[in-house]
Structure prediction request, 244 residues.
Amino acid sequence: MAKTKSDNYWEPHARILESMSRFQAAVSDVRKRLDIPETGIPYDKRAEWFADFYRNADENTAKRYGGAYGYELLPPNKELLDELDKLRLEFNLDPRWLHPLFNYIFSADKSLEPPSQKSAWPSPRMNDVRLPKEQQRVTSLSIRIEKDTTIHDIEDIWDDIRKYQAYMDADIPSRRDPIQAETVERYRKIVKLRADGLKYQEIAEKYPNKFNSAEDVRSFKNKQEARFKKRTSLRHLPSLWWHK
Prediction:
């Protein structure tokens, strides 16, 4: 049986880290450089504090960290993100710790939250999540991994990957049904003969070893061209995490 991480894998890491005097000193220095009180941003001022980052955005978090869920929620402020990156690298922490570190620094909560136990995430790019569900499309899809990611971590998220694949435009035929070289040859021959003015019945009579009737010729041609027919709609779309 494959070895998997326990639910609280990162919990003891967080508890040891917050107890280290070196870590507390580093966090205190970051707060001073970012002009954050040692007791954190007061609760009633947090909304305005966050809004200020977005009014003066100077960093693209998705471009900096990729499109994995969560990173785009970090404030788009280069100074802040530089401080977070320096802090996590100083203590040998991977990007999963960005949100916990950010929350710990600005809120001054007593406990440092452990990061997600996942080591792999779907990383989709959408046309516009504000559109109605049937108009949403995944324009590109990748899998974000960490240094400790295993094939089992990817298998665990495969159901989510399949959901995003359903929103991709192209209806790719099954790879178990590839176009054979003989099929290409037959199709090109039909196209040439049709361009020369031959009717489907005449083509069937000319090549009785390949086609039984005019309908056989027509059906074969239409079947190949149907692979490249424009999709007018996507059906049976699964609900993604933001859909109600």
